[in-house]
Each structure stands twice: as structure tokens, then as C-alpha cells.
Write a structure and sequence with these properties.
With 196 residues, the protein is an all-alpha fold. The protein is 72% helix and 0% strand. It has a domain of 131 residues: Tetracycline Repressor, domain 2. Helix 1 crosses helix 2. The longest helix is centred in the middle third of the chain and has 22 residues. The radius of gyration is 18 Å and the shape is globular. It comes from Streptomyces orinoci (Streptoverticillium orinoci). This is TetR family transcriptional regulator.
Length: 196
């Protein structure tokens, strides 16, 4: 038996959106200081000035909160990339440049990066909508970097998925100390050649 889709949530009011932004900023700040374990829902609620019950209405668990934090960070990256697009001479070079810029941002805040990646890794089906949003945003960032003028072909979308998987895996291996940034760069550049 398949589950029926959840009804679309009503858009947030300006006040609710401001509250949500405070919560996400607090989550990023706590994670940046101490990683996944430092993000405690009670402390997030207190630091962002909301009741604990309110926090749970926005984000049912810490994993939901940290996946939403990753979405927020990717949206900021996407905005930055739109203002300062990659300058590589071909799509593969532009995508590799874009993903390495994202990696440098992660390097500046390794605890935050680790918390967000762990949340993605721990996410179960209850977080699938949020994880899908992160995936769609990552796809959009890669497609923008490619500089396509038309609709991507199925082959291009398949290459983008492989690049996304490589990027995620490279993040995990770098965060666990099993890969250097130089190795990450080589792996990403190799995967990006799929779109040449």
C-alpha cells in the first residue's frame, strides 16, 4: 500500500519565516561550534527564542533541522554562484570549479559540514521530502554551472546524478580523514568529465 502524498504546507507568514530563519541560523551556529552532537533541540529553541513545541512543529527532529540547515546553506551558495558564476572554459571545468568552491566553504566550517552530512546520512523516510529538496538544489547548482541553454538530456541528467554521488561520497571521505582536498579535487574533476 502506498502512502498518500502529504498536503502542501501553507506558505509561511513573514513572522513565521523570520522565526524559521532564526532557528536555522542557530542550528548552523551550534553545529559550527561542535558538530552534530552540539545541536540539541532544547538549546536551539532557547537560543532562537522559540518554545520547544514550536521548534518541533517546524522541524520534527534534529535530522530534519540539520537537513534544512544544509538546504539553507546550499541556497546561499546558489545565490553566490549566480552573482559570481564559475569562469571555466567548458561545462566540466565550470562544474568542478563550482563544487570545489562549495568544498572550500565546507573547509572553513568543518563541524557544520560534518553535522549536515551526518544528518543526510541518518535521514530516514520521514525526512525524504527534505532530502529530495537538497538533491534538487544540488542538481540545480550543477546545471547552472554547466550553462545549458535548453532542457538537459537524460544522459546529462544521469551524469549530474553521478557527479552528485561523487561529491557526497568525497565529502564523507574528506570529513572522515580518509581523503585529502587534492584527492577530492581529482575525483570531482574526473566525475565532471562525464559532461564534456
Amino acid at each position: 500500500m502506498t502512502a498518500s502524498p502529504k498536503p502542501a504546507a501553507a506558505p509561511l507568514t513573514e513572522r513565521q519565516e523570520a522565526r524559521r530563519r532564526r532557528i536555522l541560523a542557530t542550528s548552523a551556529q551550534l553545529a559550527g561550534r561542535g558538530g552534530f552532537d552540539a545541536v540539541q533541540m532544547r538549546e536551539v529553541a532557547e537560543s532562537s527564542g522559540v518554545a520547544l513545541g514550536t521548534l518541533y512543529r517546524y522541524f520534527p527532529s534534529k535530522v530534519h533541522l540539520l537537513v534544512a540547515t544544509m538546504q539553507d546553506q546550499l541556497e546561499r551558495l546558489h545565490d553566490t554562484l549566480r552573482k559570481r558564476p564559475p569562469t571555466g572554459e567548458d561545462p566540466a571545468a565550470r562544474v568542478a570549479e563550482t563544487l570545489m568552491r562549495a568544498f572550500r566553504a565546507m573547509q572553513r566550517e568543518p563541524h557544520l559540514a560534518d553535522a549536515m552530512v551526518r544528518a543526510l546520512t541518518f535521514a530516514d523516510r520521514s525526512v525524504s521530502a527534505e532530502v529530495d529538496t537538497v538533491s534538487r538544489l544540488t542538481t540545480a547548482i550543477i546545471l547552472d554551472a554547466m550553462g545549458l541553454t535548453g532542457t538537459p538530456t537524460p544522459e546529462q541528467l544521469s551524469a549530474v546524478r553521478v557527479i552528485e554521488h561523487t561529491w557526497h561520497s568525497a565529502l564523507v571521505t574528506w570529513l572522515s580523514g580518509r581523503a585529502s582536498i587534492a584527492q577530492v579535487r581529482v575525483d570531482i574533476e574526473t566525475a565532471c568529465r562525464l559532461i564534456s
